[in-house]
Amino acid sequence: MPTLPPPTSCEELLAQMVSFETVNPDFGGPAGGESALAAHLETLAHHWGLQTRRLPVGDRGFNLLITAETAPDAEWLLFESHLDTVSLDGMTVPPLKLTADGDRLHGRGTCDTKGSGAAMLWALQAYAHSTQRVRNAGVVFVVDEEAQMRGAKAFAGELAHISRLRGIVVGEPTGLRPVVAHNGALRWRTITRGVAAHSADPSKGRSAIHAMLHVVAALEARFLPLACRGFPLTGRAAASINLIRGGSAVNIIPDYCEIYCDRRLVPGETAAQILAERDAALAGQTVEHDSLYLAPPLPPQNSAALHAWAAPALRACGLDATAIGAPYATDASHYAAAGAQVIVLGPGDLAQAHTKDEWLDRRELERAIAVYGALLRLPAGSA
């Protein structure tokens, strides 16, 4: 991609970010797409006089931390947005070109969450050139939120090195309402094995698919119904079996079958508790489990102090500062687990994300710049 000139507006910055294909590689996206966008943002940051650090994330490239530092002993306020998107397949608008239909700005990632990231960075560069710098501030752009949250897990490990951290504002489409609690996600693969044989004589083999039918039946009867707990802000738990694969050919008794399970945890539930319930439901079955993934639930106590501090800035911008919850999982839970105060706050609505014509309202983008800027300028030491 040719070098892009420094943008003259946040909308132009968003257009540049959308032009980079950053579909998560786990969903068929290009290797290095997230890193290419991060490198562009790094160049812009240097142009604006901001500092940057590349924070390696294994084989997934790097998170990019962009900062405006005021004083070594000043408190820190961080903002976070993820670089990756879901697939471009089936989109009915140009996925990698920002197009406008009235105030609707279309393109993959406009809502989830390049709009948040653009507004955060635009607010940060304005703050860096202001005379009202009362704290150190930064925006971290992380990789791999849509699949494994590897970027958030890696950045959570960096938080111990940041002294006087006020908190982290995580960008997701919340309609600029502060989300202070959300559900978590626990996923895994369950495997059954058999003995392959020619289908002309099935007695010589043992079907892994047949074994999996019993596993699915046991989970549906004794595990899925246990996902009935609720939490006032985030709704009910949920459990589902969403992928199944097995067999190699129509004339071979299958020696392998796998399913992928998804369990949504409400605050107060733990992974150990859920896995114990799964194992009890499958007692007597011969199975293997692997590919465990956990995004822990976010309880409101991990947001209470930051929400109380941020609420005056939201109200000053004409926004509803009432705390709400969400049924989905975000990067925020990993930062909370590392001891940080967090809120989830960004422009757009979940219903606009991941869609064939994904869009973000131009006016909400402007409101996001205003509220992020207001948070940056809140007096140091305010409650």
UniProtKB/TrEMBL annotation:
Keyword match Hydrolase: yes
Keyword Lyase tagged: no
Keywords: Cobalt, Hydrolase, Metal-binding
GO MF, one example: metal ion binding
Ranges where the Peptidase M20 dimerisation domain occurs: 180-284
GO biological process, one term: L-arginine biosynthetic process
InterPro entries to which the protein is assigned, alphabetical: Bact_exopeptidase_dim_dom (IPR036264), Peptidase_M20 (IPR002933), Peptidase_M20_dimer (IPR011650), Peptidase_M20A (IPR050072)
Listed transmembrane segments: none
SUPFAM superfamilies the record matches: Bacterial exopeptidase dimerisation domain, Zn-dependent exopeptidases
A Pfam cross-reference name: Peptidase_M20
Name assigned to this protein: M20 family peptidase
